[in-house]
Amino acid sequence: MKNTKAHTAKAALTVGMKRLIVALLALIIIPLVINRSFNASANTTTSGSQVKVQIDLLEETATVTAGPGGSTKFYISTDNMKTWEYIDYVSAIDLSGIMSSKPVTVYFKGNKDTNPLKVDLPGEDNSLKVKYEVVDGVGRIVYSNTALPVEYRKGSNGVWKSASNNMPTIQYELKGASLQFRTTATASRRAGKIVTVKIPKRPAAPSVSLDASKLVIKGLKAGQTQYRVGNATNWTTFSPPDGKSNSIDISALLPSSNNIIPAGTIEFRTLGSNKKVHSAVKVIEILPQAAAPTNVSLVGKILTISDSDIKRNYEYAVVPLGTAIDIKKIKWKTVTSKSPVTIKRDKGVVLVGDRVLIRIKSTTDKNTKQVILPSAYLELTVTSLTPAQ
User: What is the DSSP string of 30-74?
Assistant: First the structure.
């Protein structure tokens, strides 16, 4: 017959032992989790009293107080107790000059203590890995090999800020920057080794420019240059129908009203890749186009402009009968109101039915250096060839 009482007693003992072990572990682990600092303790069995030392790795300080021996003076040794240095200020001793990238051992004692207290200061954790990478033209910081919180600062004197994995770097790409990263410190955990990452300056803006005479933006590259207009946030990649053109009509970006181009802002950049970020942005501001002049007359082949400002430049062009008007191909001739002029074709002679386009010539503002578009053009038709040239 089985001894059930013995079996029950053994089971109760096993349960009791488990509870005891759990309680003991709780007493050990919970304080380690809760405390923001730790108390240094001796690693020697030598008898005698010791000072009390509390280490704060966040502030990199040590606070020394008297132990059972009742010491009134305190000392520190950084050379394995060969020499001792008197501690003048005991409320918070700065350890930053003592701590190193590798573990360091220091000793503390009081004038009435016989057992020096050994304190092992930890070295820097160098497990953090940080890199700068570019994905689809966007730069970012990626770190790995740690589960601890990470912080960063700009340069060696910046303020430490909380970092996040895959954090964008666009704010540092205008001129480029050097960023430093480390795992954050607590009172019981030292900050990690600093990892420096260089953020390169973003590529220069594309060399696009306004050709006011032809009313186009030139210097674009198919599949590489992007643009956006006004308050738009999305970019459009330049894709000319022929795949070869390097310019785009202003009127295609700023739709005209009554044949007058309105004011607007156009931004351009070079598309990035997985190797380089999007370029800096080139901004071209367009002022509103002036209306076509009305103070012009054409009698035969004589063009007359009525303007009190004889220094104001106008320009005209003769478009042969049956030829479509293409502003990009027209060659203009500069005239003023100083005296009437006899119109001429670029090639050949003027014929009845030819069209004459007249506009105020483009200028540049002397103060702002802003390019001012030529005015809209007035179109007249040659109805006779008299008076003759």
Answer: HHHHH-SSEE--------S---EEEEETTTTEEEEE--TT--SSE
pLDDT of residue 148: 95
Pair type for strands 74-77 and 209-211? unpaired
> Could you state, in order of their start, the residue ranges of all structural domains in the chain?
38-121, 129-199, 209-286, 296-381
Q: Are 76 and 85 in contact (CB under 8 A)?
A: yes
**Whole-number Å distance between alpha carbons of 246 and 244:** 6
Residue type at 128 in one-letter notation: L
Check if 38-121 and 129-199 are the same fold.
Answer: yes
Question: How far apart are the C-alpha atoms of 295 and 360, rounded to whole Å?
Answer: 11
Which of the following CATH numbers is that of domain 129-199: 3.30.420, 2.60.40, 2.60.120, 2.20.28?
A: 2.60.40
Residue 138 dihedral angles phi and psi, to the nearest 5°: -115, 125
- Cα 161–163–165 angle (5° rounding)? 175
Mean pLDDT by 10 residues, the chain (389 residues): 44 46 40 38 54 92 90 93 87 89 93 91 94 97 96 96 96 96 94 96 96 96 96 96 93 90 97 96 96 95 94 96 93 95 92 96 92 96 79
Fold of the domain spanning 38-121: Immunoglobulin-like (2.60.40)
